[in-house]
Amino acid sequence: MSVSLRDVLTGEDVFGYIHRVQGFFDQRLYQQVLGAANAFKEGDAALGIAAADETSRANARALLSRTKLGDLHAHPPFEDRLHVFMLEGLDVARLSRLSEWTLGQLKGFLLTAPEAEVHAILGGLGSDVIACVVKLMSDAELKAVGSRVFHPLPGSKLGAKGYLGARIQPNSPTDHPDDIRWQVFNGWSFAVGDVVLGTNPVSSVPASVAAVEAALHDILVTFGLTEVMPHCVLSHIDVQAQVEARQPGTTGIWFQSLAGNEAANRTFDVTIEKMVAYAAQRTGKYGLYFETGQGADATNGHHYGCDMLIHESRKYGFARALKARVALAQLGAGRAPEPWVHVNDVAGFIGPEVFRTREQLVRCCLEDIVMGKLHGLMIGLDVCSTLHMDVSLDDLGWCLEQVAQAGPGYLMALPTRNDPMLSYLTTAFQDHVRLREKFGLKVDDRMWAFFQALGVIDASGRPTEHFGDPAWVYLQYRRRKGDTRPDAEVLAEAKREMAAVRERSVPLAVGHGEQVWDLEPSLERELRSLYEDAKAGIWSELSADLVARLPDVVELRTCSEDRRDYILHPPSGERLDGASELAVRLLRLRQAGQWDAQIVISDGLDARSLMDEGHLLPFLTELRRELTAAGWSVAPEHLVVKYGRVRAGYQVGELLFGDTEEAAPRALVHVIGERPGSGHHAFSAYLSAPSARAWGQQGRVDHDITRLIAGISDTSVRPEAAAREAVRILAELAASARTEPPTVGGSVEARGALS
């Protein structure tokens, strides 16, 4: 299904076209015209709102270009409470002055007016208008607008013209503090890392998050950088608040993933009221840090018939309104209203169902940079490629060069392009070195001075003999800790600790290749080997041998026709096919309500994670033992789902446990293969334990009341330990189900809910 627009008249705008064709304002046709104006993306095509051909796309853009901003503002593509909240961030006087402009006029103004004049109108641009003007721009035009509009963070050069910052992303498959510390030392050895030290945690248990927060905070305190840059553990904002309450002063900037509508935000366990309340607490130097990305709303089932660009722009509208609330909080606390608020656009993380090619990925990044800047935000990027997209390691380098031309505030920074925990491709430390050299970009002045004092670059900014040597940075860290041991002893200790980090499958980039921006050759070979291994894992199938080793197996499958359909069209893997649905209904009759816990196993994105020796079977053995000891009655059957995704497990729970009268909790453990790329061949366990009443409401059980244990393997989170943690979490979820409405519980963040 696609949108064909053939009979557009000269001088006609969107609303004139709709009324002529339909005889009335047709909301669905309006959404289709807006979608048809987009550059092609797989995500829009899946929603049936992509243009049928280039002629239709050109016609849709022509209609939009002649449409007045006031008319667009008066006809939101969809409405909810979040849309109303975003309107608070608009300047009514500026909005009125711009109402007679057409989108074509606005586009021309953005491309030609001085930056100060562009800044002067931004308060009058609504999120839908911003999305629509971006639809009209070519990639070159997006680069032009992005490279002339900037919003640096207060008191810094972060996000300023001529600067490219970096968020060091020191992720660890086991949340090991040493893995995290050493990746920070590694980044700083390349003079990279000036915006935020931001870790994606495996565990969102407050104690674990607190340990990672403390490790990051210690580094900044030791080097005297707490007023220069913040740190952040990207757990749910509720958890960060809990950690701050327990250990005041140990958290930095607070993070939260945002969606573009109220329903999708609930998937992240986020409400407007919650975010407003947290914004009111951010009275210090560092405010809020948001993560967004095109496609998350649709893949979570909340697209409202609208294209990805509309939803993404509204995320920035949400961020803009919250930024204003942080400014008010600072003012109320007697501080200057200088909100340190920025956005990280995670472009490409979901997979080929959203963007399949490098061209689509770049287009998304350029759109999002411009939309973020037109909302008055400092915006950075995680230019992502999952291993099942048609974007190679080399393609990613090309993407980074295209994106850098649009002036993003910052990019991610890891030892290599492969994240050892999230299993996707992104920006390496040495990519920053290359982009700085190629485009003449700078690091924030205060951190550049720090890197010179650290001794990794000289007074003229050129690499020293310590460039790319994290052991040297560790030596400076120990000296600032008051360590007086001889250099050789400390450096020997550094060598041992670095070896231990690598043993946990976390790479460190030591030294460089022929150019300082090239990976050291052996590390380059290792990176490419992991890439090839991941490509093999994506297409792996669950073996009959493993299934035969499981007792009491009930084999099920989803609506995916084959592995390719499963990879490219994720919704097909979210529902059981007819025969499997019937099989679960019959199983419910046989079980006759005697069990309150069920285990489901799906192949996921890497079936090898379940087949590797020492992975699935030890987990299941310990899980059953611990569940029984904790008082759960565990069904003997193992439900094995071919081509299963996370929501297929929720459907199983609905079919097995749904009971509109029963308030007791019912637990479902869904074991599923993670996306490959880390080399761990890890699997995850999705844990749900709402009441049978909640299971009885179709769609009620979703990611917002589910908890996740990720990175389970014999080389990361040990299967037996994961099983024990799963039972502990289920006890918490069950207690919540017994005492509160089934809307309370841990949430699966955006990056964890997409298997």
UniProtKB/TrEMBL annotation:
It holds the Pfam family EutB. GO terms for biological process: amino acid metabolic process; ethanolamine catabolic process. The keyword Lyase applies. It comes from the Bacteria. GO terms for molecular function: ethanolamine ammonia-lyase activity. One of its GO terms (cellular component) is ethanolamine ammonia-lyase complex. InterPro entries: Aldolase_TIM, EutB, EutB_dom_2_sf, EutC, EutC_C. Coiled coil: none annotated. Keywords: Lyase. PANTHER family: ETHANOLAMINE AMMONIA-LYASE HEAVY CHAIN, ETHANOLAMINE AMMONIA-LYASE LARGE SUBUNIT. This is Ethanolamine ammonia-lyase.
